[in-house]
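Tip: read the tokens left to right.
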């Protein structure tokens, strides 16, 4: 709170005994004039203070009223969909119910489609929630320099080369593309079974091209941030522009870009809107500077073709399950910091792991280490790898049994 300026000094009358009658009279007159002046000044101050008091009282009354409203009703959370002449269209979180309602005049000007708001029992908008950074932070994983390098990824050298051409080269040598007169691919889609290194590949290319890595999971957009999907997609591209050079990575893109289903539930409409936002962001991509877009899916067959048109995800890279050589390389990578007994040939172990993904191979290495630890040894032997493989296979069979039992 600001302090009021200090009060004027109290005038003092100083009479010298040596003064003549006339001099004294003049001094007293001057003193009188000064007192009148100070008095006027103080009156002015009093007026100002009363005016300010009136203003503050109005604020206090307003806050009291707001407080009462907030105290008497629980508020629900909703998102603003549209602002029309008839009122505000909101959608409640949780049940996805859409309602045409009103906002208090005090909020009228602040509301924007996509805002998160608090509504009361009669759906009137009470508050705009300041969640912009909140859900942004929750929905996006932002890493300045991810700690993955190309050398950490095994068995997919061709894919690494393709990603470097499509993502790293345009980020590092944009002028070369300009000179040759070709447009780099707009978006790169990695597709293939789970756990084969798609996320690693996106992280590594961001790291090696000194770009910020910004990840968003498609499945979370539809599960966790209901009603906010399209706004978050817009925010994602905005954030990337702020942090360029940047690599956007949309994991499980199938969750927001599947072929249209027949059902017309509002949940689908919402997913549809999120996809539309994504498409329009990609279409406006030309002038976006040093931002590259990547996405991944395990369900390539489910994707809506609209997402694959030229200018959108127009570079498709398949990341398959590793072959024996790939598995051996991945096992080598994951055992390089392990104390493996001399003479242990990990490629022999890898040859036996038909159908294992990179992630499976990584957990096999950890499991083998655990066997050594349980046995009180510091060296991991071929037997440990075999025991780990048996254990993982058993676990897989149990899982299959559980699944079969459930169905
Ligand atoms: N090619 C690989 N080389 C080395 N490690 C790998 C490889 N593929 C997978 N891994 C291991 O598996 C983990 C998971 O891989 P990653 O998240 O990149 O797979 P993904 O293809 O994105 O999977 P999902 O489709 O399930 O998201 C990695 O952290 C790494 O430990």
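Filled-in amino acids:
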């Amino acid at each position: 709170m600001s302090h009021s300026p200090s009060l004027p000094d109290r005038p003092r009358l100083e009479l010298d005994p040596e003064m003549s009658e006339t001099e004294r009279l003049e001094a007293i007159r001057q003193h009188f004039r000064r007192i009148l002046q100070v008095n006027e000044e103080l009156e002015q101050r009093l007026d100002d203070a009363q005016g300010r008091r009136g203003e503050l009282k109005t604020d206090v009354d307003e806050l009291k009223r707001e407080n009462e409203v907030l105290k008497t009703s629980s508020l629900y959370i909703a998102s603003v969909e549209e602002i029309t002449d008839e009122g505000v269209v909101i959608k409640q979180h949780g049940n996805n119910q859409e309602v045409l309602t009103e906002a208090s005049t005090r909020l009228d000007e602040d509301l924007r489609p996509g805002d998160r708001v608090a509504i009361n029992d009669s759906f009137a908008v009470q508050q705009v929630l300041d969640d912009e950074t909140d859900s942004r932070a929750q929905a996006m994983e932002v890493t300045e320099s991810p700690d993955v390098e190309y050398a950490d990824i095994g068995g997919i050298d061709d894919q690494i080369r393709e990603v470097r051409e499509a993502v790293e080269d345009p980020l590092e040598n944009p002028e070369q593309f300009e000179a040759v007169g070709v447009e780099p691919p707009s978006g790169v889609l990695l597709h293939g079974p789970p756990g084969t290194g798609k996320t690693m590949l996106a992280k590594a290319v961001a790291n090696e091209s000194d770009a910020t890595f910004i990840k968003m999971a498609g499945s979370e957009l539809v599960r966790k941030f209901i009603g906010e999907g399209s706004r978050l997609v817009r925010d994602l591209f905005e954030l990337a522009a702020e942090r360029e050079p940047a690599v956007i990575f949309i994991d499980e893109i199938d969750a927001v870009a599947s072929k249209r289903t027949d059902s017309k539930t509002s949940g689908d409409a919402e997913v549809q809107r999120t996809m539309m936002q994504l498409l329009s962001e990609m279409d406006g991509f030309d002038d976006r500077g040093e931002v590259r877009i990547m996405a991944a899916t395990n369900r390539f067959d489910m994707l809506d073709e609209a997402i694959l048109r030229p200018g959108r995800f127009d570079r498709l890279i398949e990341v398959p399950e590793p072959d024996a050589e790939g598995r051996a390389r991945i096992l080598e990578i994951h055992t390089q910091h392990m104390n493996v007994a001399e003479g242990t040939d990990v490629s022999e172990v890898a040859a036996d792991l038909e159908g294992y993904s990179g992630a499976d191979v990584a957990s096999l290495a950890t499991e083998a280490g655990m066997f050594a630890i349980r046995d009180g040894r510091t060296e991991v032997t071929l037997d440990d790898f075999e025991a780990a493989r048996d254990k993982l296979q058993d676990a897989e069979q149990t899982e299959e049994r559980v699944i079969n039992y459930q169905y």
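The chain has a mean pLDDT of 85. The first helix runs from residue 21 to 72.
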